[in-house]
Amino acid sequence: MTRVAVLKGGRSLERQVSLRSGARVEDALERLGHDVVAIDAGHDLVARLRQTDPEACFVALHGGDGEDGTVQELLEVLGLPYTGPGVAACIRSADKVIAKHAMRDGGIPTPDFFAFTEAAFKQLGAADALPAIEGRLAFPIVVKPAGGGSALGIKFARSAGDVPAALVAGFSYDTKVLLERYVPGRDLAVSILGDEALPVVEAVPRDEDFYDFESRYEIGRTDFVCPAELDPDVTARARELALATHRALGGYGCSRVDLMLDSASGELVVLEMNAIPGLTETSLLPQAAETAGLDFDALVERMLDLALRGAESHR
Fold it and tell me: What are the start and end residues of each CATH 3.30.1490.20 domain in the chain?
């Protein structure tokens, strides 16, 4: 039996998703016979960790602090093993702009993009560059905040007239936004567990033409196909790219890589890596694990084991 602190909740806009992930993890750990301490991450996080003295931490935090390396840095200082990637991988993957530059540097295909800070628009007249950007990317384009996850703040701009409102939405979530070439096609995800790429999941929204926050987390809004019905070569390529992305960003333990299969070219492109994948009833990592023969309890045990083994290897 291991005393495990489940870190959940927190201050981010993805708090509710995190609470759901954390609750499922707690139930699984208790069924597995572990001593579970639930911690809603807040101003007293360090004090509570010192008070409860866990042997490991299961990070079920989403969004800021939990995925950008902040909590991971604190856990490193306290000498506590934790699930998921380390500080550097979290920093790289949490910032979509940094992640995309790392992918480009690593030869991993990713849609063309431009990124600007809010200050560039307010102080450097970046708005005057928008027509040139729009011409180079061509419509439609996707406008998204550089940070955050769960599809929060992502807008679909079908024409130049849609861009200002999309930018306002993006800047309401972050001080930096990404303007990215839209890739029409099939929405795929490959989860990594240890050094293994799990079966590919395809997300097929029932009513929307874009996989948004509601589609991700409301049961019945999206159909999930796992394993995705793909040509074997495409499946192999998707898993290869996911592993390459995981390694390029310094991933460890587990992650989820989101890809698009371009309907026009038939090519795969990587959108981003999620360092702390969701573990809710509709999340993709548990679905992929189940297809691979791991039920939810076995998945949680494996993630905890990877955290403890990782800590041992660094001693």
Answer: 113-181
pLDDT of 213 reads: 40
Domain 113-181: CATH superfamily, name plus number: ATP-grasp fold, A domain (3.30.1490.20)
pTM score? 0.88
Pick from 205, 174, 170: which is nearest to 187 by CA?
A: 205
User: Within the chain, which residue ranges are assigned CATH 3.40.50.20?
Assistant: 3-84
Class of domain 92-108+184-301 (CATH, top level): alpha beta
Read off the pLDDT band of 124 (50, 70, 90). confident
Question: Which fold would CATH assign to domain 3-84?
Answer: Rossmann fold (3.40.50)
Asked if 263 is an active-site residue, the reply is no
Residue 113 to residue 36: CA distance in whole angstroms: 43
CA 285, 244, 85, 4 dihedral sign is: positive
* 26 in catalytic set: no
* 217 a catalytic residue: yes
Q: Is 274 a catalytic residue?
A: yes
Residue 278 a catalytic site member:
yes
Catalytic residue selected from 217, 250, 251, 283: 217
**Whether 31 is catalytic:** no
* Range from 136-150, 164-178, 262-276 carrying the lowest mean pLDDT: 136-150
Among 150, 191, 215, 283, which one carries the catalytic annotation? 150
